[in-house]
């Protein structure tokens, strides 16, 4: 039951706060406590997260329907759990300096940007749709595009989980997210600025011997035609912009493109409960 009044929330139970179906503009620092599970409901909401650190995830907020925008206050030190919900959302926590945030765009073509910090990684997920995930310079984060044609912009250091036919379906607040790799080159994810500081995990592929490289111009597609769930036929895992096939082979040989059990474990570790309990996720992304 949404609040009947824009920019105003009601607490439904002891743990759930609900704003209105209108376009709310809110600063969660002005509501107390700010760590209730907060639903923004319909409308194009503009949400500034609270900078009050209450332990655990200090902001837990879902934009729900509408094209919603989420930002943090300057130098915010909170851990946050932000879901865009359906439609085109922007979750830009550049102002946050703590990291260890969970940012998931869910359905729609979303823009996800992680906090500016040195070593504590956030999880930046696109959900379904064609999402853009940005890691700012000087930061390191885990980036998961999920289904759709996603673009990874690696100005900092990334730990990418690329989608393949790995036989799993990751649930989110809006239901299942399909993970299959692309059948056509034009539908493949795009990775930009992949360097010696980045790693990419390829779950659902048994070993690096299954990986195929196809250079087109100055860019190289990473492909496979055999997957652990039994899928056969060529699939496009991602396009690495500005990377030659020889350079991509070097990344594979250097252990920066990770397949097999290590990649599957990394994907499976990405649950909110795991992450809340251990922001380092047992070190599977080191
Ligand atoms: Ca909304
Ligand atoms: Ca939304
Ligand atoms: Ca999305
Ligand atoms: Ca996506």
What does this protein structure show overall?
The chain has helices at 245-253, 260-268, 272-277, and strands at 10-13, 16-18, 25-27, 37-39, 46-48, 57-62, 69-71, 79-83, 90-92, 102-104, 111-113, 123-125, 132-135, 140-144, 151-154, 157-161, 170-172, 175-177, 190-192, 199-201, 212-216, 219-226, 232-240, 257-258. The chain has 286 residues and is mainly β. The strands form three sheets. Strands 1-2-4-6-8-10-12-14-16-20-24 form an eleven-stranded mixed sheet. An eleven-stranded mixed sheet has the order 3-5-7-9-11-13-15-19-23-22-21, with helices on one face. A hairpin with a 2-residue loop joins strand 21 (212-216) and strand 22. The N and C termini lie far apart (43 Å). Residues 63-66, 68, 84-87, 89 line the site of one calcium ion.
Helix tally equals 3
Structural class: mainly beta
The general outline is elongated
Give, in spatial order, the strands making up the sheet with the most strands: 1-2-4-6-8-10-12-14-16-20-24
List descriptors.
11-stranded mixed beta sheet; 286 residues; mainly beta
């Amino acid at each position: 039951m949404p609040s009947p009044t824009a920019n105003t929330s009601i607490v439904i139970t002891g743990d759930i706060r609900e704003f209105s179906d209108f376009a709310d503009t809110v600063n969660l620092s002005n509501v107390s406590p700010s760590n209730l599970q907060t639903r923004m409901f319909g409308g194009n909401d503009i949400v500034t997260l609270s900078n009050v650190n209450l332990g655990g995830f200090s902001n837990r907020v879902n934009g729900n329907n509408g094209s919603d925008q989420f930002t943090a206050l300057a130098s915010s030190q909170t851990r946050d759990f932000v879901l865009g919900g359906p439609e085109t959302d922007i979750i830009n926590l550049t102002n946050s300096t703590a990291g260890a945030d969970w940012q998931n765009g869910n359905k729609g073509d979303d823009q996800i940007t992680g906090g500016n910090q040195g070593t504590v990684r956030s999880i930046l997920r696109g959900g379904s749709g064609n999402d853009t995930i940005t890691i700012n310079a000087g930061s390191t984060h885990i980036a998961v595009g999920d289904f759709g044609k996603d673009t990874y912009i690696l100005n900092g250091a990334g730990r990418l989980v690329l989608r393949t036919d790995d036989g799993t379906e990751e649930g989110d607040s809006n239901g299942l997210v399909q993970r299959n790799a692309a059948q056509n080159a034009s539908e493949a994810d795009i990775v930009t600025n992949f360097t010696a500081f980045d790693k990419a995990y390829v779950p659902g592929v048994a070993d690096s011997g299954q990986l195929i490289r196809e250079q087109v111009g100055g860019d190289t597609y990473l492909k496979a035609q055999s997957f652990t769930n039994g899928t056969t036929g060529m699939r496009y895992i991602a396009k690495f912009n500005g990377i030659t096939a020889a350079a991509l082979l070097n990344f594979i040989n250097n252990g920066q493109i990770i397949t097999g059990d290590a990649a599957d474990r990394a994907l499976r570790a990405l649950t909110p409960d795991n992450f809340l309990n251990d922001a380092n996720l047992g070190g599977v992304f080191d």
